[in-house]
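WARN retry 2 of 3 for item q-0093 after timeout on previous attempt; input resubmitted unchanged.
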Amino acid sequence: MKETVHEREKRVKEWWKKQDIFPKSIDQREGKDTFVFYEGPPTANGLPHAGHVLGRVIKDFVARYKTMQGFQVLRKAGWDTHGLPVELGVEKKLGISGKQEIEKYGVEKFIKACKDSVFDYEKQWRRFTEAIGYWVDMDDPYVTLENNYIESVWYILSTIHEKGLLYRGHRVTPYCPSCQTSLSSHEVAQGYKNVKDLSVTVKFHIAGTENEFFLGWTTTPWTLPGNIALAVHPEMDYVKVKWNQSVYIVAANRLKAIFKEDYKVLSQHKGKEFVGLSYQPPFPMSNVKRGYQVIAASFVTDDSGTGIVHVAPAYGEDDYHAVKQNELDFIHVVDQAGRYTEDMPSLRGQLAKQSDVAIIKMLVEKDLLFAKEKYEHSYPHCWRCDSPLLYYAMEGWFIRTTAIKDTILKNNEMIEWHPEHMKHGRFGKFLENMVDWNLGRNRYWGTPLNVWICKDCGHQVVPNSIKQLKAYAKGDFPKQLELHKPYVDKIVLNCPNCQGDMHRTKEVIDVWFDSGSMPFAQYHYPFENKELFEKQFPADVIAEGVDQTRGWFYSLLTVASLFVGKPSYKRVLSLGHILDEDGKKMSKSKGNVIDPMQLVETYSADALRWALLADSAPWNNKHFSAKLVAQAKSKLVDRWQNVYAFYAMYAKIDQFNSQQHGKGKQTLLDKWILSRQQTVVNQVNCYLDDYDFTSAAKVLAELVDQVSNWYIRRSRDRFWSEGMEDEKLAAYHTLREVLLTTSKLLAPFIPFITEDIHVKLTGNSVHLADFPNSNETVIDEQLEQEMEGVLQVVELARHARNLSKIKTKQPLSSLTVIGNKEAVLYLRKYAAIIKDEINVKHVYLCDDIEDEVRYEVKLNFSTAGPKLGKRTGLVQKQLQQLSDQAIAGMVKGDRRLTLPSGETVQLDEEDLIVKQVTKKGLEIAGNESYTVLLDTVLTEELKQEGIARELIRAVQLYRKELHLPVDQRVSITFDGSDKVKTVITLYQELLETNLLLNGITFGEKPVMKTVQLNEEKIRIGIE
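OK item q-0093 returned
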């Protein structure tokens, strides 16, 4: 029974494991140049999805290719184990939610549950990784929760602190009220969505006046209860306007946008004239002692709104700094769960971000709403839970990345980006706008921030190791200290400044700092493995999805820049998203998610890999579907398997042995395919060295097609022939060489089938072989160009056949090929191939088409009309009256036309639509190089031969149905009309040549198959 692709890949994986092929591929390159690979760590508490496949396939491809090129490529897997996604998963599993319930459940129990959950899906990840043929060391991975890893992270943070770059401060930071944690700028960048919100223009009553108001504008009505000030630009022009019995102050440039009609300008002012004025806030707070006044601020503009900005220091970074600079009060009316506090009794407990409508209703009741409108804008949402973020003032720990911005930008210049535009585009612009890294997280499951603070004098100690921590510790120190909360929080240090007690700050660190530290922490650097680390730093290439430009790509670059001042990678492949076939993002709710494991099991890992690599450049978003994988299987994987199966079948029949049999005598076809292969070797190396996987795949696909559909097709007679003459030997050696070399070229793309073929041919793994380098002495450019011309002619002739709806098995009388004189000369030596391939009796070659066709021309009105104007009709009429000779002249380039009036009109090539018209019984097809004319007139003799050839095909199909060996001779009995018997008698020699017959008889047999050939029914018996 025929082996399935799934069974083949399973067998190959078992062989890899039994023979230790992956370890051998690394060990055999010991002492060679290193090519450094970094694995971006996935989180194993979720299942792998289609988006993970592309990244893992690309990484495996590069590592296999570089290994075959002679480099040693260590491939250490990694697991990202900390962070809020893990916490949220555990909360869901435990049926709890939020910090209060975690504290009630118990932090130590919760931490243990987080640790236990981290590898919930490790088996599925391992199965998925092995299924797609991704070679990576999953038995010795780096794991971010392990003490060694954390200790390296602590060392890096201690170094950053020594440089004065780690600080504690108050800042308005993006904050998720659902997760109750702040986010760093690169996390925020991952979650923007277009939303519709309400903006409001509010009346702020000026103290000491009867009916004068500042008009303040805000896009966040929910922040109005936190108002402390109004900001104006000191040098901006403002006006006092009377409208509807009240007086309003707005920016002069916004006047007409705010007041459409019936307003009166009373006076003009500079913004600084209003600074210091007091006003009545819409929601006054009793605890505000210094506030509710106008301040000057340079961030105010008159591009939108009113030119007067409502300032709430707890909910905006500019607002916070402005209030601090003016020494005004600071108030918070929203708690860490994102709900209003008791300072806002009427809305207490309600989610602030969802209270815009309620706030507006309250403004209406107070007669303080001047205007409201909906507007669409891009707003940040939590990348983990999808909740809209708040900008929220809180105390936290920050890394002063802005202080080394120039270093980070300089390091980015040293990196090669694919695609190139990312370097100064998406990534570069993000770097240009960087802010200090918001490092601390008020959560539980993460690397604890290693900062201990003296409660008496405020001195800070940032231990760089467990050893240093122990040196500062008071009292007993545990033999095995786990570096997580709550265990490290029990360690009290002795303050070297005042001998007071020092306690660890409560925060854990941003998980992106964890993953950005992996080049160092994966080897527990600098505590051990210094030589190995230096050998493995920086990475030659990293590859992840485009969203990691503001995630792992950023954290890797920034951590290394902070720690050692250098970039941690030389080259980055930023991969596009996997979308469904309609270009939509895959999601469970839409029902368009593709399970990669199902694709592997249905079509094969090789087919999935090829579909991902060959379809389009990996940095493009991919419209992906099962159909694409099915096509990859049939057009490449199965086709290559069939090439090998053809070779293996006939080699077995002839007992061909490449070591014992002579090389034979190469034909033109052998020399051509070997030359083509070496040209492709050149092309593939050039493309892959530039990480152009798709172009390399395309030239390889073309080569496989040419091997299968041209070389083997044209060489079948040699393989079918009896004996082992020179040309047959050459065919065997040539096809074996093509199978071996092309399998090496294909190995990084489709590692399973290429391994299977290579092992069967040599006994050795293709992945332990060297990647091919071209043999220039084999390349014959002229031969390749000539055969390309032959292939073009054959393709055109096939197209002409299709147009005439005449089957290939039906012989035709002639094919005329028209090309330039050089082409006509070299095509003569290939005339026999063209004749046989197209199944015609004669091939005629000429360099002038005039005797065979005539032309029809008419105006292309879309281009000629605008030029000719009123003369268009006259020109079209004149064209219709031209002789065939005159039209031929126009086609050749003389496009001057004389009108009856004597006026001469010069037409351009684009102004004419040219159609070639052939004589009756001729079908025409052409391209830029050749035109072919196929004689489609069928004589009775041609029809008879057509029946004979169709009969050969029918017998061959019947042999396959009966599972007869290809080399088995048979006796055939035919039963049909006298016409059929006549055909069989006339073409008996043709049948015997093609069907390996003992003999032909006419009559009936107990078992016969009936076939329909044109109007004739024929019964076939085989024994």
